[in-house]
Amino acid sequence: MYRYDEFDAAFVRERTAQFSDQVKRRIAGELTEDQFRPLRLMNGLYLQLHAYMLRVAVPYGTLNSRQMHKLAHIARTYDRGYGHFTTRQNIQYNWPKLQDVPKILEELAEVEMHAIQTSGNCIRNVTTDQFAGAAHDEIIDPRPVAEIIRQWSSLHPEFSFLPRKFKIAITGAPQDRAAVKFHDIGLMANEKNGQVGWRIFVGGGLGRTPMVGKEINDFVPHEDLLAYLEAILRVYNLHGRRDNKYKARIKILVHETGIDQIREEVEAEFAQLKDGVLTLPQDELDRISTYFAAPPFAADADDVLDAEQHALENAQYAKFLKRNLFKHRQPGYTSITVSLKSVGEVPGDATDEQMDAIAELARDYSFDELRVSHEQNLVLPHVKKSDVRAIYERLVEIGLAEGNAGLISDIIACPGLDYCALANARSIPIAQDIAKRFADREDEFGELKVKISGCINACGHHHVGHIGILGVEKKGTELYQITVGGDATEQAAVGNILGRGVTGDEVPDALEKLLNVYMDRRESADEPFLDAFRRLGEAPFKEALYG
Amino acid sequence: MKVITGNELLSGAVIYYYGEDRWGMDLQQAEVFDDKAPELDAVLDATAKKDRVMSLEAIPVEREDNKIVRTNRLREEIRAKGPTVGNYGRQHLSEADYVSL
């Protein structure tokens, strides 16, 4: 795992001191709210419905146990004993007080963390595959490149006031688990002539105008990657619309200008930058890569995990084995998804005690490594198969042993109107109701991604849910639009809106109607919901919902 | 009819204007203004100048039997009562936070 060098430590320390002074001046009345707001946002501090909200960056979703213990400590000491893990692989605290935030940032700096670039019109925290460095299907571990992008983009002076926020996601595997085609820039590892480089997508995004990213280059070698990214950012910074917030993202620029012209301009800019100071030397990539070297796996680890045998003993454990393990590249090891979607709980929330317990599990069983997934779960990336039972039993004790990864109750949900100042409708109660309704049957449905947003900003990724739910407000009432057929993977698709919205109470019934169509008309139990939808089209689902 | 609301500077807590330069967290104690009362704008202006209340606004309410029975939006109901999920209640407004006002 990457450790701060003197530059990282210095800028985080300096920023913490600066913000501490700014908070003092705001409280003393020396800064107005209009002056203070952009400063606090640059440090991840929002004002939500009930209180401030502090968003802390988890670089490419990677944590060690010390950092997780610190996040637990902050939740306990300065907040209300819990934190909320987000689709940006970050953590948010919902109840900090203004005068405590400098102390929180000081505590975060002690464990090489901060809240910089978690808000504002800059390059945000880079996100990646939660199984990076562990996945069996990986072409390359994306974390060294993600770290290099973090260093390049942190406090980048030219890109601190972009037309709008800018998100980069990266995957080293052909199976895209990082939704790269729905980011401003998406990077996907690619092999060409025996060399590994990057396929680059640009102009993807969700929000009020969902777009699938378009390929701008099918192969950029490592050494040119930063120059190429800088070229894209320069073209965007120059031409991105600053006159209209709703048209300011790069997806609109790409859509309105056309990918061919954007490519032409980027290539021209890249020609100026290529072989310059942004060229990434192999020895620097190698140096960063040493931080992400594989842990000392046991060569003789037992590679057997008999889920069927366990099913005879404990159905819940068998379900956990079936759903929450992910194939590891190292024989005898597996990655475990720790679901933060226990039925009836708030998706993505973890208490301080749960965070401490998971940190201990990471220390004892996963080479001190943890991940946050964009699906709002945690991951123990490197676990010996022979240790899975012990981990499961501990997860049962802390209430996080739900074996539902990828099932209908593993719902992405934004905080919605219960917390968010932008939301129009609640998301969390809808997620809870759906999970409760279908928990007993969810295994029958197989993989089914339900995603809920409380407003059109789409923080809950509803556009790419196999079933997506968008909360809107109409005449003071919450209504929910249902979409079907979204897909965040490499086969990226935006879901189709089926028709008029339904009330919150009607959402579980509406989903049941959709699921009945699927169960009745799937070719076999092996045909997932999304495949069935693609084969059948939206008509039978629409008919079931609206007659 | 309207009441004046916003978020207090130090805690971010939802607060309401009680009248006579007093603020607190109880919607029921909020001073209710006629929609076009000049006092409404005067309080908003004076509060904005002090700059200790953020997201300051006057929200429509309905009153029955001297009780505020309805705000215009669910958003305001949730602001007044706290999240509808979890058992976290509302943000606390300490003595120091009152001093901030």
TrEMBL record, chain A:
Entry keyword annotation includes Iron: yes
Keyword list, A-Z: 4Fe-4S, Heme, Iron, Iron-sulfur, Metal-binding, Oxidoreductase
Chain ranges of the Nitrite/sulphite reductase 4Fe-4S domain: 119-271, 410-544
InterPro entries assigned: NIR_SIR_4Fe-4S (IPR051329), NiRdtase/SiRdtase_haem-b_fer (IPR005117), Nit/Sulf_reduc_fer-like_dom_sf (IPR036136), NO2/SO3_Rdtase_4Fe4S_dom (IPR006067), NO2/SO3_Rdtase_4Fe4S_sf (IPR045854)
Start and end residues of each Nitrite/Sulfite reductase ferredoxin-like domain: 52-111, 328-397
Coiled-coil stretches noted in the UniProt entry, renumbered to this chain: none
Keyword Glycoprotein: no
Pfam families named among the record's database cross-references: NIR_SIR, NIR_SIR_ferr
Entry protein name: Nitrite/sulfite reductase
UniProtKB/TrEMBL annotation, chain B:
Source superkingdom: Bacteria
InterPro entries: DUF2849
Protein name, per record: DUF2849 domain-containing protein
